[in-house]
Amino acid sequence: MLEELTGRLSPEQTEAVLLAVGRRLGTGAPRRSGALQERIRDAVAMLNELGGDASVESHSQGLRIRGFGCPLSAAVARRPEACRAVEGLLSEVIGVPVVQCCEHGPRPRCCFTIPSAA
Questions:
Q1: Three-class secondary structure of residue 41 per DSSP
Q2: How many CA atoms lie within 13 A of 57 on its CB side?
Q3: The pLDDT value given to residue 108
Q4: What CATH number corresponds to the domain at position 99?
Q5: DSSP 103
Q6: pLDDT band at 75 (very low <50, low <70, confident <90, very high)
């Protein structure tokens, strides 16, 4: 699907579609409530249930979800824009904007920042 999207759409359109897909997937997740920290922990648990290996850490720009195993690594290694779907999913589940800062390449690692202004 990613190959087809990238072959038909501009890079900006492809990323917009993937972000929207992630958000739509997030609407199907159980509605998270509670403090921001609690919602972030729940989102990390969800990523880990999907096959990731993520944790939360403090960062100068806010909080960061750092992955040590990407559940989409096979897709991301070829198509880094696939991270936008996870960005949309996390934004929806946490309830605040999340910014993707993933490491791409043959061994991708997830990284998503939740700005302190959130």
A1: helix
A2: 10
A3: 84
A4: 3.30.1380.20
A5: B
A6: confident
| Strand ordering across the sheet containing 111-115 | 54-59, 62-67, 111-115, 99-100
Residue 102 tokens, joined: 């993933």
Residue type at 46 in one-letter notation? M
What span, in angstroms and rounded, lies between the C-alpha atoms of 113 and 104? 16
pLDDT number for residue 96 = 93
- How would DSSP label each residue in 43-85? HHHHHHHTT--EEEEEETTEEEEEESS-TTHHHHHH-GGGHHH
What the block records as the tokens of 108 is 């991708």
**Range of the structural domain that residue 73 is part of:** 2-115
Tell me if residue 57 falls in helix, strand or coil: strand
Contact assessment for residue 88 and residue 18, using Cβ atoms and an 8 Å cutoff: yes
Check pLDDT > 50 for residue 64.
yes
Q: How many residues would you count in the chain?
A: 118
Count of domains for the chain = 1
pLDDT of residue 55: 94
